[in-house]
Write a structure and sequence with these properties.
The complex is a heterodimer of chains A (about 375) and B (about 260). Chain A folds into 3 domains: about 5-180, HUPs (Rossmann fold), CATH 3.40.50; about 205-265, Rossmann fold; about 290-375, no CATH class. Chain A has 12 helices and 18 strands. Chain A has helices at about 20-30, 45-50, 65, 70-85, 95-105, 215-225, 235-240, 270-285, 290-300, 305-315, 320-325, 345-350, and strands at about 5-10, 10, 15, 30-40, 55-60, 90, 110-115, 120, 125-130, 135-145, 150-155, 170, 185-190, 205, 230-235, 335-340, 360-365, 370-375. In chain A, a hairpin with a 2-residue loop joins strand 8 and strand 9 (about 125-130). In chain A, helix 4 (about 70-85) packs across helix 5 and helix 10 (about 305-315) runs antiparallel to helix 12 (about 345-350). Chain A is globular. Chain A starts with a strand and ends with a strand. Helix content of chain B is about 25%, strand content about 25%. Chain B has helices at about 35-55, 70-75, 95-105, 130-135, 190-195, 215-220, 245-255, and strands at about 5, 10, 35, 55-60, 80-85, 115, 140-150, 155-160, 165-170, 175, 200-205, 220-225. In chain B, helix 2 (about 70-75) packs across helix 5 and helix 3 crosses helix 4. The chains are: A alpha/beta (about 375), B alpha/beta (about 260). At the A-B interface, helix 5, strand 7, strand 9, strand 10 and strand 13 of A face helix 3, helix 4, strand 7, strand 8 and strand 9 of B.
């Protein structure tokens, strides 16, 4: 069936997820939208799917899909794909979606494309648009394997549309094989959050390490409340324990559309990494080694411009306590070290400013690296 | 407990990653590499589990000869031995091709637990571990922010949309850890010296019983058609608060129709 696009519907908090509805809108635009709904669902789930463009729903309410991870769903969906051969299966780039697509692609020996931002369907072949390398590239890819194409779709890629369809619900048999009950979900722990949820929020007020502490997130909460939005946080703030993971946005957290990311930097990948590690630095600021570095810095104060730049470097690049105690440090006047990928390009960028009056030697060791500065 | 860690070695943090317009792949040749921090977390978790429950940790990786430095770093952290899939024929493998090669290499030794990162920091497709588990015929426990092993069982805290799920399974199993699950250790001088003597087994695709058309660009199902730069975004606007800051921000938000 060259123009049938399936959407794997997900339920979170007893509701069809927003991404499911977004994918249905695109599926209905690209061809004939059909949905798969597995596991216990709210009473109006089928109705919601039909209202957003699904003309057929493959349904099974068996709790096995909720109690056991991935394997029962993969077995059922693989069976349905082999029977009906849809052109495309869309899954959200969510926890369950990613696991399902990975399993299906190995099971059916077909390819899969991750992180899809948009796609075109033509005569059964797909051309997907993927933002790559922290959205610094925009690539297009296709799948050359015959059969159903598996795509993992980024949330917020499409606008959900009300597009009521007459719907046929086909009940499918539950995956009953005992060998599929391997990964048991014993308990679901909900971490309480206040205010509107990020997923459905029309607006996100995001904060990061610049807020300097848990208490300052209250300001964001007030602003978000006034604007009717939700509070989001960068990885730095989450890793510091100021806010729960559920509030994290960006590559490793919740995806929000770029409009919402207006005040945050372009490179999600780099920012996340940098935020993360810079933050670890702050937590170590009382470390003795840092004090030693400060003393060294004071010695360099006779040269104000360099001093200012070093201060800047210290503020933005990690001064790793482990690295300053490294044997090399005995040989040099000043070290700027980075811990675990911190700073990435930022490390090099900053030090470039010191090149005029310092000799720079970069030592790359493992995922930590450091630069020896010797005044000329 | 025998643990295999699948870790990717990627262009180092000091390198700005570029895509080659001809091959449409990431430029890796001649570029300094390092163990992916996400993979380092998986290595660390493996070492912690082996310290607690006994057994050795083996690193399995795939890549060009430049990745050896990353393998040595993992060995310096305390990994007992390493397997390196090194073959020009595997260049351009897609996720499934990569998973097939890793699965074949892992099957060459006994294992109870396979540890992976959730996604690599360079290409972050995030599905290789799921494919790998299916190819190995073992269950996948993913997005782990805490891992505990007890006898023949493994239990994790799996990130979820609104908190976490406690998920458990019997061994053998595959666990994909989230970044930030731990703080990877820094290799000590003793470890660095010892790493020089540790064994790195090198396999080609043929050694692993995979034909040239099953792997690499030939075997890839995913074909990159075009690479390009997205439209440039404008620079941000900085508002300096001189008593009117709040008003200016509100005006700005109104201007871009956020409020």
């Amino acid at each position: 069936m060259a123009d049938v696009v399936w959407v794997y519907a997900e339920i979170v908090d007893d509701k069809i997820t927003a991404t499911t509805l977004e994918m249905l809108a695109k599926a209905a635009e690209a061809g004939k939208a059909e949905a798969i709904l597995l596991g216990p669902a709210p009473a109006d789930a089928a109705q919601t799917l039909a209202k957003h463009g699904a003309s057929k729903i493959y349904h099974c309410a068996d709790p096995v899909y909720r109690e056991y991870l991935t394997l029962p769903a993969a077995e059922t969906v693989a069976g349905l794909i082999q029977k009906h051969q849809p052109a495309v299966l869309l899954c959200a780039s969510s926890y369950a979606g990613r696991d399902l697509v990975a399993n299906l692609s190995a099971r059916l020996d077909c390819g899969a494309i991750s992180d899809v931002g948009d796609f075109q369907l033509k005569d059964g072949s797909v051309e997907a648009t993927i933002p790559a390398l922290g959205a610094s590239y925009q690539n297009t890819s296709t799948l050359v394997s015959p059969g159903t194409k598996l795509l993992l779709v980024r949330p917020k890629s499409f606008e959900p549309k009300v597009n009521e369809q007459p719907v046929v619900v086909e009940e499918v048999a539950a995956a009953s094989d005992e060998t599929l009950r391997k990964v048991h979900v014993k308990e679901r722990v909900v971490v309480k959050r206040e205010g509107p949820q990020l997923e459905g929020a029309k607006m996100v007020v995001a904060g990061g390490r610049g807020l300097k502490g848990e208490e300052n997130f209250a300001m964001l909460k007030d602003l978000a409340e006034l604007l009717g939005g939700a509070v989001g946080a960068s990885r730095a703030a989450v890793d510091a324990g100021w806010v729960p993971y559920a509030m994290q946005i960006g590559q490793t957290g919740k995806t929000v559309s770029l409009r919402h990311l207006r005040r945050r930097a372009a490179s999600l990948r780099h920012e996340n990494l940098q935020d993360h590690h810079l933050d670890q630095q702050r937590s170590r600021s009382a470390d003795l080694s840092i004090l030693r570095l400060r003393r060294r810095r004071r010695r360099l104060q006779s040269d104000p411009p360099a001093h200012r730049r070093i201060e800047e470097a210290q503020r933005r690049v990690i001064l790793s306590p482990k690295l300053v105690t490294h044997p090399f440090s005995l040989l040099s006047n000043y070290f700027v070290g980075s811990d675990q990928n911190v700073g990435r390009n930022r490390h090099a960028d900053l030090l470039r400013g010191l090149q005029a009056d310092h000799e720079l030697q970069l030592y790359g060791t493992f995922h930590r690296y450091f630069t020896r500065l010797t005044p000329l | 407990m025998n643990i295999v860690v699948c870790g990717k070695i990627i262009p180092a943090s000091t390198v700005t990653i570029e895509l080659d317009p001809n091959t449409k792949r990431m430029v890796r040749k001649g570029v300094t590499h390092e163990l992916d921090p996400a993979a380092a977390s998986a290595v660390e978790e493996g070492l912690r589990l082996s310290e607690k429950h006994g057994g050795a940790v083996t690193l399995v990786t795939m890549g060009i000869s430049e990745v050896t430095i990353g393998i040595r770093n993992a060995l310096a952290m305390g990994v007992a031995s390493a397997v390196h899939i090194l073959d020009d024929a595997v260049a351009g493998s897609d996720t499934l091709g990569t998973a097939k090669l890793l699965a074949a290499a892992i099957k060459k030794q006994p294992f109870d637990l396979v540890l992976c990162a959730t996604e690599s920091s360079d290409s972050y497709s995030g599905i290789v571990h799921g494919q790998l588990a299916q190819l190995l015929g073992i269950p996948a426990l993913t997005f782990a922010k805490e891992v505990t092993a007890d006898g023949g069982r493994i239990s994790i805290h799996r990130q979820s949309e609104n908190g976490y799920d406690v998920v458990e399974s019997t061994l053998p199993a595959l666990v994909a850890v989230s970044s930030g699950i731990n703080e990877p250790r820094y290799p000590q001088l003793k470890g660095i010296m010892a790493a020089k003597k540790k064994e790195i087994k090198v396999y080609t695709a043929a050694d692993l019983g995979l034909a040239a058309d099953q792997v690499g660009e030939k075997g890839a199902r995913e074909k990159v058609l075009t690479i390009g730069r997205p439209p440039k975004r404008e620079a941000g606007k900085v508002v300096t608060d001189e008593g009117e800051g709040g008003k200016q921000i509100a005006d700005f938000l109104a201007e871009i129709k956020v409020i």
